[in-house]
Amino acid sequence: MSPPIPAEPTAHPTHHHPPPGETGSRFFIVAQFGSVAALVGLIVFFRRTPGFATLSITFVSIFLEALPFMLLGAAIGGFIEVFVSKTAITRIVPARPLPAILLAAGLGLVFPVCECAIVPVVRRLFQKGLPLGAGIAFLLGGPIVNPLVALSTAVAYGNDLLIAGYRLAAGYLIAVAMGLLIDRLFSRKSALLAGTMASLPESGGGLERPAIPLRARVKMLQALGHGASDFLDTGRFLVVGALVAGLLQTLVARGDLAAVSGSPSLSILAMMILAIVLSLCSEADAFVAASFRTSLPLGAQMAFMVLGPMLDLKLLAMYFRIFRKRLILVLSVSTGIIVFLSMMAGTWMGQ
User: Fold this and answer.
1) Is residue 18 domain-resident?
2) Which of 43, 78, 125, 137 is the most exposed place for a label (fewest CB within 10 A)?
3) Helix/strand/coil (H, E, C) string of the chain?
4) Could you tell me which of 314, 292, 313 has the C-alpha nearest to residue 303?
5) 190 and 324 in contact (C-beta within 8 Å)?
6) Strand pairing partners for 323?
7) What's the whole-number mean pLDDT along residues 126-131?
8) Does 278 reside within a domain?
9) Is the residue at 11 inside a domain?
10) What is the rounded distance in angstroms from the CA atom of residue 221 to the CA atom of residue 225?
């Protein structure tokens, strides 16, 4: 009688988005149900009005244009989780702070993940000993400085590669600046929660590649499963964002938008607040930003696309699983100030 075949261990069970109860994201549950209720109410009571036609076209166009990029990003994130070892990334990063931060801010070009997927990845990298400044730079820069975001941004703006390049450059420079700032102000002990600082074993626990190699078919299925989970978890935010963008385009008078657009500071602040509230995926937010092309200046649109992947409500909830409160406060305020000043400087230079 042949010995029993050991069950195949599962690989990389760590790539998942924390459920709403763990992240404290009750706001998003309410927003999602509210969005569904609003859509049903609009269809029932206002479907024959001209405004509903405008809302429908805006909502559907934003959602359908962003959908392929969200699918592609979720699939790539799933394959990275299953096929790329976490230690492979830490081996790439230099030991010295400045080179480590400069490199980490651009790691998204090699490991393209959105901001929803990058938080648990960075947490594991911190547990593997990744320097604090490098981790912050990757956390903030990775969701922007990657080829998927460049492609989606270019498509959203009518294949304008210049705008995509501006976004990636701004994301990289701000991520580097924040990495250097946090590295100067905090130590790992003062910044990270105890569970985040804990060193992981070099094997076992499903955190490294299993001793018994998995079949390629099993790995593929796991990668697709991770990708499907990512897509279902982040796709709901796109629905809410597309609806809010459509409502703004329909209900806000053009005169009001013109008044805001006349003041660069007000328009930038308004779009920064909108980016924080909407909490869109970085692979889809360019389509929402592009819907304001005719009403708001480019600096305001760029503020929306740069700040959102670095700081929004869902990210703040996830940050509390990694960082101490003081670090989150400094990170949030400093990122907001740097983005605002950067976009204002860009607006002044463009005039």
Assistant:
1) no
2) 43
3) CCCCCCCCCCCCCCCCCCCHHHHCCHHHHHHHHHHHHHHHHHHHHHCCCHHHHHHHHHHHHHHHHHHHHHHHHHHHHHHHHHHCCHHHHHHHCCCCHHHHHHHHCCHHHCCCCCHHHHHHHHHHHHHCCCCHHHHHHHHHHCCCCCHHHHHHHHHHCCCCHHHHHHHHHHHHHHHHHHHHHHHHHCCHHHHECHHHHCCCCCCCCCCCCCCCCCCHHHHHHHHHHHHHHHHHHHHHHHHHHHHHHHHHHHHCCHHHHHHHHCCHHHHHHHHHHHHHHHCCCCCCHHHHHHCCCCCCCHHHHHHHHHHCCCCCHHHHHHHCCCECHHHHHHHHHHHHHHHHHHHHHHHHHHC
4) 292
5) yes
6) 192
7) 82
8) yes
9) no
10) 6
CA nearest to 121, candidates 150, 152, 146, 153: 146
Task: Decide if 2 is inside a domain.
Answer: no
Q: How far apart are CA 274 and CA 181, in angstroms?
A: 26
Retrieve residue 23's tokens: 């992240």
pTM for the full model?
0.72
**Domain carrying residue 284:** 24-195+212-350
Percent of the chain topping pLDDT 90: 35
Structure confidence by residue, pLDDT tens digits, 212-250: 456 788 888 888 887 787 777 667 767 777 777 777 767
Contact (CB, 8 A) for 117 and 124: no
Domain count, the chain: 1
Q: Are 290 and 309 contacting, i.e. CB atoms less than 8 angstroms apart?
A: no
In whole angstroms, give the CA distance from residue 334 to residue 331.
5
